[in-house]
Design brief:
Helix content: 55-70%
Radius of gyration: 23 Å
CATH class: Mainly Alpha
Distance between the termini: 47 Å
Largest sheet: 2 strands, antiparallel
Number of domains: 1
Structural class: mainly alpha
CATH topology: ABC transporter involved in vitamin B12 uptake, BtuC
Length: 343
């Protein structure tokens, strides 16, 4: 039972990343009808927003420390971060240590700008083009963004630690009635799942209960009729592209302590996220979220040593096997809508 609960927690952790990226993909496809293969790059850019903020907060200047000397007896020069000079040593160090959560505030405007620029500068020219053209141009854009990140940050992963308060592990088993130290799980992974649940809930609430969201949902159902009512639905869809970029970016920001950012992390998640979208049903937001968590849990169980001993390599293909089975039995996916990509 302990192993089962631990694998479910691992699955929710992976599923959170899949669900957030797939949610953004589905928002873009549902509103604009664009198959965006550059969405994984948005996840990567969000992760490097955290790296960038960490480097900015770590910028320092040299001061002479009269209390310390080098081997010649001269006063030692030490690097002092600017934030330490502005806010004091303790507060400055705390700000640096909490750079990942603070990067959320930094990433939101950055990702909105990136999403808006991407849609206005490139994507809008491919609305009426075949999906194959959309895939080719957005995949090319993803490669360009990947190489830009590689040029600026290098090819090696960049460690981006969580705040010290969340670097340990939590005795989850004791919380639910098991013996102590039976189910130990990292704090940050629990925080990531909680954060993902909050973002997903916020997106659904925004679409369901705000006037802007209601207009967007109406436009997704019948774009021409909404336009005839005098509503600039194109502008609202552009904002939805920016919001989808923010969702992917925030997923990347919070994932950095789990997986050190590298230039190819967007591609690593992209293919899996598209499988999640297809399994959930093209254009279905609830389907994308449901499929993300289901496939994450299945992948986690398939990674157990006992399972791999019986079927070697099953953890590498389980998601694709499940996708094949579901699409053979339900061609539209778990919650797909009639007519989506069927023309």
């Amino acid at each position: 039972m302990e192993a089962i609960i631990l694998q479910i927690l691992n699955g929710l952790d992976k599923g959170s990343a899949y669900a957030l990226i797939a949610l953004g993909l589905t928002l873009i496809f549902g509103t604009l009808g664009v198959v965006n293969f550059a969405h994984g790059a948005l996840f990567m850019i969000g992760a490097f927003c955290a790296v960038t903020l960490q480097r900015i907060l770590s910028l320092s200047y040299e001061v002479v420390d009269d209390t310390r000397t080098d081997f010649l007896g001269n006063p030692l020069k030490v690097d002092v971060p600017y934030v330490n000079g502005w806010f004091g040593p303790e507060m400055g160090q705390t700000i640096i240590e909490w750079s990942v959560p603070l990067a959320i505030l930094f990433a939101i405007p950055v990702m909105m700008f990136v999403g808006y620029a991407m849609e206005r500068g490139l994507i809008k020219h491919f609305y009426k083009r075949p999906h194959a053209d959309q895939i080719l141009v957005t995949f090319g854009l993803a490669i360009v963004l990947q190489e830009v990140i590689k040029a600026f940050y290098g090819a090696n992963p960049i460690p981006t630690p969580a705040p010290p308060a969340f670097t340990g592990s939590f005795d989850f088993g004791a919380l639910i009635g098991f013996d102590p130290n039976q189910i130990i799980y990292p704090y940050w992974r629990l925080i990531y799942f909680t954060f993902a649940a909050f973002v997903i809930t916020a997106v659904f609430a925004f679409l369901q209960f705000t006037t802007f969201g209601m207009v967007v949902r109406a436009g997704m159902a019948d774009r021409e009729t909404v336009g005839l009512l005098g509503i600039d639905i194109d502008k609202r869809f552009t904002m939805m592209f920016a919001i989808a970029a923010v969702v992917a970016g925030l997923a990347g920001v919070m994932y950095t302590p789990i997986n050190s950012p590298n230039y190819h992390m967007g591609m690593d998640f992209l293919v899996l996220s598209f499988v999640v979208v297809v399994v959930g049903g093209m254009g279905s937001l609830p389907g994308a979220v449901l499929a993300g968590f289901v496939l994450g849990i299945l992948e986690s169980f398939a990674s157990m040593a006992e399972v791999i001993d019986i079927i070697p390599g099953i953890n590498q293909i389980i998601i694709y096997l499940v996708a094949i089975i579901i699409l053979l039995t339900r061609p539209r996916g778990l919650m797909g809508r009639r007519g989506v990509m069927e023309d």
